[in-house]
């Protein structure tokens, strides 16, 4: 094993012992992960789905697809709006139109529509948290109690944020399952993690001590927790070491059956004086944050897609090999 040198703030070794001394492949018990996933999927969602980065929605309308619905997203002087992409007149794509005085202008016949709606067409409930935009689909999950705003984990007061988005051939549950399996980290991402051990495990959260590589054998060691505030989100929060208070939110939004958008927001913070300098050049720092996050998710998306394929293939494999009836 190649040597690894850590620097930065030292962690309390008395609370950093692994919960088990068995190999990672034994600790990553499939039943344990499935139970954690089951608890996450039972959490209330309030009907909310993450759309994407707030800064990605401008006064130029664009089409987004969520739960097999085509929506148009645009920004007004009052904030972000989302609505059905079909013009209520003859079904034209409103995303191909323009925005004039906060109102959508249909590209086919010039119908202008806004917050007051038109017939059955009306904007959907939205929430802009400053980093991400959310939309509430009131009839997507029958029986789900709707909430006024999404269920969100605590965020740092000051931060530099970066948001990535990519797509995977899987379901949201497969994305959450990936993050509920921290034991794969150092094996699947050796270029990013020098070592990783689970130091606490409860029904609500998993706590890890991880050495994040900075350059070659040099790494920063931190303690971080993973927990789910809703059934389509898992949040990592650094609770010890460099960047304490920083948060990584991973959101899984269903696009259509078998396809999911992975939207991850990194909110980096620090109490070091250098962080204030970094905030002044956040636009320069952000691409590096996003590139690092995207590299991890290229691999982890393949992990989630593999879980989905295995789950999809098992019933068909059983049907193919079962004995014919007598």
Q: What topology emerges from the helices and strands here?
A:
Elements (H helix, E strand, L loop, with lengths): L4 E3 L16 H4 L2 H12 L6 E6 L8 E5 L2 E8 L2 E6 L13 E3 L2 E3 L6 E2 L12 E3 L3 E5 L23 E9 L3 H8 L5 H4 L4 E9 L4 E10 L2 E13 L2 E9 L5 E10 L2 E10 L4 H8 L1 H40 L5
Parallel strand pairs: 1-14
Antiparallel strand pairs: 2-10, 3-4, 4-5, 6-7, 7-8, 9-10, 11-17, 12-13, 13-14, 14-15, 15-16, 16-17
Helix pairs in contact: 3-6
Strand count, sense and barrel status of the largest sheet are: 8 strands, mixed
Would you tell me which CATH topology of the largest domain applies? Alpha-D-Glucose-1,6-Bisphosphate, Chain A, domain 4
Q: Based on DSSP secondary structure assignment, what is the total number of beta strands?
A: 17
Query: How would the global form be characterised?
Result: globular
| Number of helices, where a helix is a run of at least 4 consecutive DSSP H or I residues | 6
Number of domains: 2
β-strand percent reads: 25-35%
- Mean pLDDT value: 92
Structural class, by secondary structure, is alpha+beta
The CATH class assignment of the largest domain is Alpha Beta
Helix content: 10-25%
Cα-to-Cα separation, first versus last residue: 57 Å
- CATH homology-level superfamily of the largest domain: START domain
Indicate the low-confidence ranges by residue numbers: 317-321
What is the CATH architecture descriptor of the largest domain?
A: 2-Layer Sandwich
């Amino acid at each position: 094993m190649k040597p690894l040198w850590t620097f930065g703030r030292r962690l309390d070794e008395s609370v950093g012992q692994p919960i088990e001394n068995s190999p990672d492949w034994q600790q990553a018990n499939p039943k344990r992960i499935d139970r954690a996933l089951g608890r996450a999927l039972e959490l209330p969602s309030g009907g909310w789905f993450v759309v994407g980065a707030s800064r990605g929605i401008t006064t130029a309308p664009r089409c987004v697809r969520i739960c097999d619905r085509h929506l148009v997203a645009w920004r007004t002087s009052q904030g972000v709006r989302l609505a059905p992409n079909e013009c209520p007149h003859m079904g034209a794509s409103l995303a191909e139109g323009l925005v004039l005085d906060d109102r959508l202008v249909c590209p086919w016949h010039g119908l202008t529509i806004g917050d007051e709606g038109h017939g059955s067409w009306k904007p959907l409930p939205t929430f802009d948290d400053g980093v991400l935009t959310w939309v509430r689909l009131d009839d997507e999950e029958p029986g789900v109690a709707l909430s006024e705003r999404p269920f969100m984990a605590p965020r740092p007061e000051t931060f530099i944020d970066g948001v990535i988005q990519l797509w995977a051939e899987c379901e949201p549950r497969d994305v959450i399952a990936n993050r509920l399996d921290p034991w794969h980290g150092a094996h699947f991402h050796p270029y990013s993690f020098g070592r990783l051990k689970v130091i606490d495990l409860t029904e609500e959260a998993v706590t890890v001590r991880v050495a994040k590589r900075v350059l070659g054998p040099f790494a920063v060691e931190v303690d971080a927790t993973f927990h789910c505030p809703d059934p389509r989100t898992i949040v990592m929060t650094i609770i010890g070491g460099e960047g304490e208070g920083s948060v990584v939110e991973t959101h899984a939004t269903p696009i259509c059956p078998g396809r999911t958008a992975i939207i991850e927001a990194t909110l980096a913070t620090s109490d070091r004086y250098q962080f204030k300098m970094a905030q002044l050049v956040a636009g320069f720092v952000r691409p590096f944050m996003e590139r690092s996050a995207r590299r991890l998710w290229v691999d982890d998306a393949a992990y989630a897609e593999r879980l989905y394929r295995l789950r999809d293939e098992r019933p068909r494999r059983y049907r193919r090999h079962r004995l014919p009836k007598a």
